[in-house]
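Changelog excerpt

This revision adds worked examples to the README so contributors can see how folded entries look when concatenated. The first example is reproduced verbatim below.
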Amino acid sequence: IVKLKGTGIMSNLELNITYILYPGIAGIRKNLTFINHGDDDMQLESIDVEHLNLNSGTTETEAYNHYCRNKHIGPYIGDWDDPVMAFHIAKEEKGIVLINEAPGVLKRIACFQEQNDISAGLTHADQVFPFRKWLKSGESFTTPDVFLMLYEQERSPYAALNFTLPAYVKDFMGLEIFGSEDKPVFIYNTWNPFRTNIDETLIDDLVKAADECGIQEFIIDDGWMVNTYTDRGANDPWWYPEVGDYIIDKTKFPNGLKPIFKDIKKRGMKPGLWLSIGSASTSSKVYREHSEWFVRGANGELANLHSSGNTGLRTACMSTEWTKHISDIILDLV
């Protein structure tokens, strides 16, 4: 552990850097601990647990992104699909593998944002899901771990990704799966390729096929809910894309979902049903009647944190009565 103390306006901040080494692996696992020794609250954001400068430039380094399936040249900022990225210097037949243990959408691995740098840690303030933590006086915060692994004499990063990395995960991260009697299950989800184009007949056929294939969990994704609201009259319908009210579409499912779920259970499979827990459509009944349950931005406008590309959604605030609303819907469906 390396302990650092701030100076000047940061004199009340203590930073501890923890390095963990593993026998037989050319790599280092690392985390940061921030301690507030001052009297005032301290704001933490845009944290890079690891930040390095490469000797090679952007055109000489291949970045393997999106679960290391795609090869990319040039600047890149990873998201929740990048728990691991590899940076391969082809002409020197060597490279670096970065593993980021930050949870979900707070994950960030980036390259060439500042000349020849690579970094891993928590999302920055300018990203869609920015990380921020307030430390009160005397409080501490420890970041998720980042693991950096080196390799050489390889024409690609795949030997490190397919052999060294899995061995590290199995031997040192202590996955519970290896000591558990409950192993992963085979799951079918209707989203690919059907999206919202589902109905009772299609689901019946899919359930039978899934049973024959040995599927253990069958999940009905989006498309089971009503997608129009017609209180305003047939000539002036109020359209909305299902999210928030969650009323079963009796045109698609004239007998409801209960018979389908009963059939799924009878065949020995577990049923699942998709909902968006934290958002609603702007034209949904719940949004129109209770806009005070939804998040507002700095400008006072109701905000969408769910997806930057979907302007028809607004994000619910879980400290309001929205929590009871969505809980009641889930319990009713169950």
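The second example, added in the same revision:
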Amino acid sequence: IGMFAVHYIRPHIRLMAASLFAVAAQVVLNLPLGDWHDRAPGVPIAVGVAIAVIAGAVGGIVPGLIAAGVGWSLNFLFVADESLQALYALPAWFTAGGAAGWLATSLRQRSREHRLAESRLAAVRQAAADAIARIDFDGAIAAWSPGAEAVYGFSSSEIVGRPLAELLAGPDAHEQADRLVEAVRRGERLTNEAMDQRRRDGSVFTASVTVVPSAATPGEPQEAVFAARDVGEIRRITDRFRDAEARYRSLTGHLPLV
């Protein structure tokens, strides 16, 4: 019931409220009360179009068109005295109300999608065992997941705002940090890059690093999602397996001699 109310009832309430308000405002504006219409005939037109735009911005395309149609009809009958010039203005009324409604609907839809994407990303960050962080255009850490705190040992308050280079270890740490920052700035994707990382206690481990550019809005600095998985234990197990395999092959190679 709650989901039904959010997705169906609430938008219709906003649509009906915007339509009723706009119709009432157009009626009050255009009714022949006094002679002020004759003294300033352009005022009802400008205010009527503004009401249609506001109705479209608040309620969407339908309220914008309703407000435009009602406003133009009343203005045509009571203010313009059914003049031919007022008749030609009809498309402008509908264009203003409809365009405002379409733009507002598109912006609301984009805002909903943005909030949904952020909530999903936040859920992934909370649930993921891997270290996940958001890196800004300058290579500074902008967000820090619980998985990252578990892997590196840094809390969010300690690491956010500090450069990504502080997490890298090894003789080529600065070169790797510069390469990651350049990848962020170019919007380039890096996948499964093996890099030495440094924990809060100073210990070093090998991580598989992935950098995925985020969908930046035009005109805004590029950002990226940084994900790191500790593969040091996997590498140690693999090395032990290879050593055991080499010993086995050596043993089986000497069996005929024995």
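Reviewer comment on example two: The chain has a mean pLDDT of 80. The first helix runs from residue 2 to 30.
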